[in-house]
Please model this.
Amino acid sequence: MTNVRYDGQRTVVSGLSDFSPTKIFTCGQCFRWRPTGEEQYRGVVAGRLLSVGLAEDGALIEDLSDGADSARDFARWEEYFDFARDYGEIRRNISGQSEYFRAAAEFGAGIRILRQEPFEALISFIISQCNNIPRIMSIVENLSRLFGERRVSAGGEEYFAFPNADALARLSEVELAPLRSGYRAKYILSAARAVDSGALDLDALCRADSELSLRTLMSMQGIGLKVASCVNLFGLGHLDSFPIDTWMKKAIRENCGDGFDPRVFGAHAGIAQQYMFFYQREGAAAAHA
Model:
């Protein structure tokens, strides 16, 4: 059972079964978090500057934004970090599928699926196409710096909110050129204009059936199955989504055999996917370190 303690701008959530800032912020699901120490990260969420680390047997969240109040604002961080979900129990269920899944779930213990802002997730994963994580992070940060709202923390630190759909919808490909996002620029603008006009209702997709949400996203220009699955999982809260990229294809081919169906994990297929992805990408490196 979790316990929450408030102290001004700081919130301590103890009793969490799974919480590792390093694994959460480096498993490929988000792009605006930077390390500031061991298991300590700083990032911008919903226009607020956060510092996140470990405390006791759980999480320490410090909202560095001007006017922050931990007791008042905790609900948004509870949703963002999915604190109400028992990842320990989910991990045990995934581990029971095979020895491979036991190893992947054990290696990935501490990962939680973030509930990111839907529009930010949409644009970020459009940018992620055929891209590496450092470059994705750079483009997303520059996009925010150029077109997002400038803010100043309580301590005087400058940072930038992720731009909203209206701000990006007004731009041209020429104006996006400093990002060096290449062919993705037209897809960024297309998505922003669809959201701004109401043609793409992300809030409705959060409430929709996962398959309907996936099909709707894939009807948009430049959004294929992998990007749509990532947006579904990381931005719209559909935890049964199971993105497949080259890392995942390799993991499935080497460990799951013919006929593998991620639906065996039911509503938590996306959590299993993150364990598999993280284990495939980081596990081999750890084994040879």
Summary: The beta strands are 3-7, 10-14, 33-37, 40-45, 48-55, 58-63, 150-152, 158-160. Residues 3-84 form a domain with the TATA-Binding Protein fold (CATH 3.30.310.260). The first helix runs from residue 21 to 26.
